[in-house]
Amino acid sequence: MSPVQVRPAAFKDLDKVHLTVEEKRLLEGEGGEGPAKAMELLVALGDIYGADKLIPIESAQIAGVSYKTMGDGGLEFIEDFSKTAKVKVKSMLNPAGMDLNNPTGESEEFSEKQTRLIEAYASMGIEVSCTCTPYLAGNRPKKGEHLAWSESSAVSFANSVLGAMTNREGGPSALMAAVIGKTPRYGLHIPENRTPDIVYEVEDDPPMALLGHLVGESAADRVPYFRGISPTEDELKSLGAAMAATGSVAMYHVENVTPEAKGYETDGLEKITITSDEINGLKEKLLRDEEPEVVVIGCPHLSQVEIQEIADYLNDKVQKDGPELRIYTSKRVKEMVPKAVKTIERFGKVISDTCMVVSPLEEEFKVSATDSGKAVAYLPKLAKQRVIYLDRRSLLELIA
Ligand code: F3S
Predict the structure, then answer these.
(1) First-last CA distance in the chain
(2) 270-283 per-position pLDDT tens digit
(3) Is it true that the peptide bond before 300 is cis, omega within 30 degrees of 0?
(4) 0.90 cut: is pTM over it?
(5) What count of Cα atoms within 13 Å lies in the side-chain half-sphere of residue 50?
(6) Which CATH superfamily is domain 195-284 in?
(7) CB under 6 Å to ligand 1: residues?
């Protein structure tokens, strides 16, 4: 059988990525159509970004899982690609469009197409653990490991909090990297690109969701270095998610907190002070003069500690006649804290595999309240919501 021709001859002149003999064979189709397509995309990406070679990855995290965002075109592409491809490394999925075990009223057509999309991914050997916090759900990378992750908040966490190395992949490039087990070496895979570009001196340790929302806008794709804050791991998750949403920050440092923050010379860098007035101004801007219909918590997906804290607050309270409560987490975390989940379920829903942004929330609600800097940025556009920002305690006080 002749090898599948998937790469136009004209592309050859643009090659800059050095390929091993085995990689060239895969590109020429000797490993079949799926790996050839994957190589084609990885090499094209490497050429564009000036990568010198492909490097092995430990894991992939693949976005493009919700039928709401993928549509029929995306479903068709994944089903077609899955017929000739298998992943070579541990691979997990980003949230889908619905809780796969406990649907919350999605249409039959939506459910059927979402299921097909998941089945196509699963047939390639990808774990059906649909979460944006894989590092809380069985895949916590070590410092220095190379990854191909695509969920922007998970990318930020892996680089900044864990010291692993990943670019902010698109869904397709993470999938292709999973199939080859490699990714082009450029960007944040190179230590020199991980140094800080801009310093933020922060007053009064504000809510990380608001700080991230504000900083993302000015940092854009630079690497911020924070002074004056001492966030917990869950707060770092929130900070990174917000900066990745309002900007495209894929890595940051926090003095005396994150693993690569030591030893950088920051004297010559641009410095910005974030004042309490600015934070309060943003908080006011994100208030609305209307009652929320639903409270959504869990962007990014909640940790065990966060679920337990919510359960502890609700435990001896009486439900108010207020908005509906929806809590989002991974299936794995949900299974780790069954008692806390049971307590919360007396007041609302604990949903896994999906989130408020990639599920069809807009079919049920128009006004939502959240404590997530990322959800505040995305819900208006992606779920047609009028959004209110409140801190977690204030959100829970609306419920009980
Ligand atoms: Fe996760 Fe959905 Fe937020 S994927 S980071 S909960 S928008």
Answers:
(1) 67
(2) 999 999 999 999 99
(3) yes
(4) yes
(5) 3
(6) Aconitase, Domain 2 (3.40.1060.10)
(7) 94-95, 132, 151, 153, 241, 299-301, 328, 355, 357-358, 374-375, 378
